[in-house]
Design a protein that fits this description.
The complex is a heterodimer of chains A (247) and B (348). Chain A has 247 residues and is mainly beta. Chain A has one domain (23-245). Chain A is 14% helix and 44% strand. Chain A has 4 helices and 15 strands. In chain A, the strands form 2 sheets. In chain A, strands 3, 4, 5, 6, 8, 9, 10, 11, 12 and 14 form a 10-stranded mixed beta sheet that branches. The radius of gyration of chain A is 21 Å and the shape is globular. Chain B is globular. Chain B has 348 residues and is mostly helical. Chain B has 2 domains: 2-29 and 37-44 and 52-189, Cytochrome Bc1 Complex, Chain D, domain 2 (Orthogonal Bundle), CATH 1.10.760; 194-337, Cytochrome c-like domain (Cytochrome Bc1 Complex, Chain D, domain 2, Orthogonal Bundle). In chain B, helix 3 (54-64) runs antiparallel to helix 7, helix 3 (54-64) crosses helix 8 (174-186) and helix 10 (208-220) packs across helix 13 (321-331). In chain B, the strands form 2 sheets. In chain B, strands 1-2 form a two-stranded antiparallel ribbon. A two-stranded antiparallel sheet of chain B has the order 3-4. Chain B has 14 helices and 4 strands. Classes of the chains: A mainly beta (247), B mainly alpha (348).
């Protein structure tokens, strides 16, 4: 009898507090926005795209979401969805460090994240708690009750033309068009997350690719993109390609 | 053997003490039953993800009628959505906002929201939990931020209590604010008009005029105002002349598609008798004005719904005066007095 009780007790203890069994660690994602090989400097620096347009950037913000870490064997650690939404704002140094904690310890070989807000989670799984952050950073399209995934503004001068402003706002268009993109990056050397110390993944975002990547976008063609079902998906596709690991 | 049971109990009781601290029994917060009327389709709103409860409903109602959700502390949701008029802004052509600001569209009635797929005149909100974000943050409506609302509510002990009773995580946050509002709104089911009692064979009968009107309605209106909900939930251009004051592009504002310009959501017609004025911009004061538009007032444009055209000619909906009278008599059978007077939804 005693033996049975002992076994029951033991097994209950094992199961009832399962959460405490796995060691966890923290990880920070360090975002660095660049233009080709140059650092991104807001307002003052001129850059040139492949359409021979010079441009300066006054504002650059984008939403990163649904962070997942993947082991070499394909096993995934999905960061809690409700806490997995961030605005990266070039003008705010703090926003460029995304601090994650409670990650199951282990060696990770890949990182997967989203650009924007995926419609399957919106407005579910607590994602509505991201509204205040999006609101404070101007990433909410209030009249369409959706998010701007990218807010990229500045001015440009086409080759031989006159200077004008550009505004690129890319997001979802109601339920008709989802510009959410998934980014998967291989980590050059696997990242170890453990209880002691914090690991860092440096993610480089090459802003030049917003204009020139899978698609080429000349601002002279269209410099004001807001709820634009033709151009916004092309820009979103380019954004998907702008990230790389810089560890 | 009894001894074993005690051990089980003791172990379960203590082994996850960290969970126990945050857990509050919610037995004092019974679930609300959402009954689908027998003549209605299944709801679109996924209630399993936000099951309505007594406390959640009470909280949602308090929020709905609270000016704290607006920057001026006055313009609550209920300010423009008045129950006596099926939650519309009686006689107001367009919605009114803080500091006397005017919106550009007529406040839509609130009922049977659990059965709708998208919300607002252009379908900007693809989920009921998102709809309130639009009026709350719009400068010409409530002009407030969620961060401010959260901090205002946190300073009010009655909200601290209600949120802790209504939601397991007890948090005053944007998600719970929106969920509570949805719990209140999904319960607003209008299904006891004379029409429903006839459709459900509950003994009511149409008058001769209403019966003629129903037959006319089926051939002339039900193409868009379909089924028991009286809308096919599509977006269509019904040939309203463009009002240069607003030049409202309608659905195109959401999709960016040229093919959606000047299209608006086909409104449901329940309680239409009391929801005047009519159309997305409230331009028509009476139901005869509305029917006169459909028979004689339409203007052609690229996106005018094909239903109103024969070849390139705009034919609208041909109706005689007596036919219009019959149709209006039928439309009045959609008025649900018990919904309009339902104390569960009233402010006081």
């Amino acid at each position: 009898m005693k033996k049975i009780i002992y076994l029951i007790c033991l097994s209950l203890f094992m199961y009832s507090c399962k959460d405490d069994d796995n060691p966890t660690g923290s990880l920070s994602l360090q975002f660095t926005n660049v233009v080709g090989t140059n650092a991104l400097t807001l307002e003052t620096e001129n850059y040139t795209n492949t359409s021979n347009e010079t441009y300066t950037v006054s504002e650059l913000k984008y939403i990163i979401s649904n962070i997942t870490l993947i082991k070499a064997n394909g096993e995934e650690f999905i960061y809690p969805i409700a806490q997995s939404y961030f605005v990266i704002n070039e003008a705010d140094a703090n926003s460029k460090t995304v601090a994650l904690s409670g990650i199951t310890a282990g060696e990770y070989a890949q990182i997967k994240f989203g650009f924007g807000i995926d419609q399957s989670n919106y407005p579910l799984n607590g994602v509505n708690n991201f509204i205040p952050t999006a609101e404070e950073t101007g990433m909410l399209w209030s009249w369409s009750a959706g998010y701007k995934f990218l807010k990229f503004e500045g001015n440009f001068t086409p080759d031989g033309g006159t200077q004008d402003d550009f505004i690129l706002h890319v997001g979802s268009h109601g339920a008709t068009l989802d510009n959410y993109k998934e980014v998967v990056l291989d980590l050059p050397s696997s990242i170890a997350v453990n209880e002691s110390g914090s690991a860092t993944i440096n993610i480089k975002a090459d802003i030049a690719k917003i204009f020139d990547s899978t698609n080429t976008h000349a601002l002279a063609t269209k410099s004001d993109i807001q709820v634009d079902p033709v151009n916004a998906p092309k820009i979103a596709e380019n954004v998907r390609t702008m990230f790389s690991i810089n560890n | 053997m009894k001894f074993l049971t005690y051990i089980f109990l003791a172990i379960f009781g203590i082994s996850c003490s960290s969970d126990k601290e945050t857990y509050m029994p919610i037995s004092s917060n019974p679930a609300l039953e959402f009954t689908v009327p027998s003549n209605f389709p299944e709801p679109t709103y996924n209630m399993a993800l936000n099951p309505p409860t007594e406390k959640g409903f009470e909280l949602g109602k308090k929020l709905f009628y609270d000016g704290k959700l607006a920057s001026d502390g006055v313009v609550s949701c209920g300010f423009c959505h008045i129950q006596d008029f099926a939650f519309t802004h009686h006689t107001h052509i367009v919605s009114h906002g803080v500091d006397g600001a005017l919106g550009t569209r007529n406040a839509q009635p609130l009922h049977n929201l659990a059965f709708q797929k998208e919300f607002t005149w252009d379908g900007a909100a693809a989920h009921l939990d998102l709809q309130p974000v639009i009026p709350i943050t719009a400068e010409v409506e409530m002009n407030e931020t969620f961060s401010n609302i959260i901090s205002k509510l946190q300073q009010d002990p009655s909200y601290v209590t209600l949120f802790s009773q209504a939601f397991k995580d007890q948090q005053i946050n944007a998600d719970n604010i929106l969920k509570a509002l949805s719990q209140f709104m999904i319960m607003m089911v209008s299904s006891n008009a004379k029409y429903d009692k006839i459709e459900r064979n509950e003994g009511a009968v149409f008058t001769d005029s209403e019966a003629r009107g129903f037959e006319l309605f089926k051939t002339k209106c039900a193409n868009c105002h379909q089924g028991t909900l009286f809308t096919d939930q599509s977006y269509r251009n019904n040939g309203l002349p463009i009002d240069p004051q607003y030049n409202d592009i309608g659905r195109k504002r959401v999709t960016g598609l040229d093919t959606d310009i000047y299209k608006f959501k086909v409104p449901n017609l329940r309680n239409i008798e009391v929801t005047f004025p009519y159309m997305h911009d409230g331009r028509f004061k009476t139901l005869p004005d509305v029917l006169d538009h459909y028979s004689d007032g339409m203007v052609n444009s690229e996106t005018l719904d094909p239903f109103f055209k024969q070849g390139d000619t705009v034919i609208g909906i041909p109706m005689t005066d007596s036919e219009k009278e019959d149709i209006i008599a039928f439309l009045k059978t959609l008025t649900d007095d018990s919904f309009i007077a339902d104390d569960r939804f009233s402010e006081f």
